[in-house]
Amino acid sequence: MRRIYLICFAQIYTCAFLSILLQYRGLLGENGLLPAEEFWKQIKKNYEPKQLPSLLWFCDQYFDLTVEGIALSGLLVSMLAQMYQHALLYAFMFMAYLTIFTIGQTFLSFQWDILLLEAGAATILYAPFLTLKVAPEHDDEGHPALWILRSIVVKLLILSGVVKVNAQCPTWKYLTALEFHFASTCLPTAEGWFLHSFPPILLRFGVAVMFLIELVAPWLMLIPITPIRRAGVIVQIPLQVLIQFSGNYNFFNLLTLVLLIPAWAHDFAIHHFWERSWQRLYLVCYILTFAALTYTFLQLFPFVFLAKSDDFSSLLTKSVIRLDNLATESWTRKMIQITLSSLAVHIFYAIVSLTAVSYSFFGTHTLKQKLRRCMLSVFCLGYLALILVPYRSILDQDLPLPYAAQAALRVLEPRLGPFRVSSSYGLFRRMTGVGSTQESGWAGVPLASKVAVPAVVIEVSTDNGASWLEIPFRYAPYKPDRPPRRTAPHQPRIDWQMWFAALGSYQYNPWFLHLLYRLILFVEYRKEDPVIDLLDLHLLNKKIPSSTIGKILIRAWRYEYDFTRVPSPWALSIPGTKLSACTPDFWPHSWHLDSFPANRTSPCRDYWTRAKISEYVPTVDKALLFKQVIQPQGWPAHSYSSDKNVRPSSFFSFATLAYIYNEYLGGSTLCKFVGFNLPCPPGLACIHDIYIDGPLLLTLMSLTLPWYFTRIYNSFSARFKCYRSRKAYARSKKHDDDN
What we know:
The protein is α+β, with helices and mostly antiparallel strands. It folds into 4 domains: about 1-140, no CATH class; about 140-340, no CATH class; about 450-565 and about 605-640, no CATH class; about 695-739. The protein contains 29 helices and 10 strands. It has a 4-stranded antiparallel β-sheet. The longest helix is centred in the last third of the chain and has 45 residues, at about 695-739. It is globular and about 95 Å long. It starts with a helix and ends with a helix.
């Protein structure tokens, strides 16, 4: 399991570094939306290298090329780590990502970025230091870093569940969050459109199951009984797969799945009496664990029948059943007080210590090996305390750690804190896209099912405002008839930030005003711009006229979006929804579109329905944006990169690597690779062409290259060994003949 985990984690790094490499110049380059060089110059004045660890302390020139070189090096090393799992490779990947994270500002402020750093630091301890790769016979069951990695994923899940309860968001309280989630996620998908039309009772059942998985099931992965711990892993997998399937959550859910692997691993060797004892009880443990989870679910989320029904299908179409939510804030507080009590924490540390002792002194042969493992175990026990510190955010007090762990924490926290090795999490604290309230929603729940997802739409005029053209983004919602695009595990960070910008005001998003300025420059001069490369460049070039006939103006509106729905009685009961003209063949005849009012229908090609709500940015021109935004921020007035074609003086440097990548390997061209449409194959009833996303395709290619090179290497190695054996045989035969 150790080798599988390390290879999978390296693949996550591959996705992360490639995604950043494709976007760096447009986001953080010299002519990006938030230039990182000036930001770095400002922050490094106030810190020392030990307070702000970064590879950029060794960079004095060619800043952008250096950062690109760091990202490219991280990408190459992550590919190498899929073949060789040495700890130094993971240490370099961690420092490379930490360096980019430090200068990332708004565009690298996501929780999966800090999760990758936290898990990446712990993975260094789990990787081998004395061998290039993990051999199957040296899998090292019971490695002390296993408990650190398990604690990280448990902390992620528990904190994510607790903040949903404590936020007192009505959608979580009444279990209606999934009735908004699929449309209100940052970058929706076509699969999300389909799930958005599911019956409310199924969606609410899904929310209840999610609470069970995030609040109760994670603790199973800290139990020192392998079958029970594996049952906890099995429960988590469907949730992460469904989230990845229904949304564009980049590498986040893939990373969470990878972090489940340590919980699957054994604590002791297979022949150890503890593992042998439970080997015979696997099925019993699974049955009892799932039975306990089912009982807990029924206690926390009881079914309430509002009316009698003999037909199961009526449960999906009428308000005859309701799920109540008893996982309240008081229940959650009591659960946390028990699971994080002094007794529970001390027992947990005792279990970890016992496995560390077994790892250090049993199964090893030399005294040197015992001492080395003992030192690693002691450090991991202290490091574990650092991982557990963020629990105080839900305890309102410090975690009751053992005395030795507290002493280690006082030593490690000030030294390792700047490396972002321990963080707190709180995903989806409140659900967005919730429309106006009804007196009574579905199944008697007093909450609206109306979806109103805020989105910002940018319009540009080339004729003094006589006509306006909408600017197309690659992945953010656009015209109603453009299908949602899938790009994960790539994260288009400008499209993600557009979602956050719609929730607030442009005054708090200076990068957005910078984007408006760069759009005006592009429309006016039609020159290459790394910022514009991040948009839907193909469609943009088609829409923008080749010449202007007046002053170029730009503005932004706030819209509210919702998915169209497959026709159904519950969809009709939701105010303001539009029913798609496309009805699945298996749909009940009474639910077909001709059974519903004509004013509630939408064309078959439409995935979205939208309405203009308010002005987001008033009409402005280039001069006004330059005077009030660009000049005060010190951003360049043009979009030409001064060091783009400058050859670095030092050959062995990150900057030189990036220069070779951009000039000779087509790196700048890859950034513009949006994707392409494939015509619908014969025999399939497609409404739209099949869209193939460029960054997603590049990511898949990057993930398969190490496997391809490994096969070539193994083939070459086998042939070389065969050649050497033939030569040796020929020499020995000649020697025998001579004698």
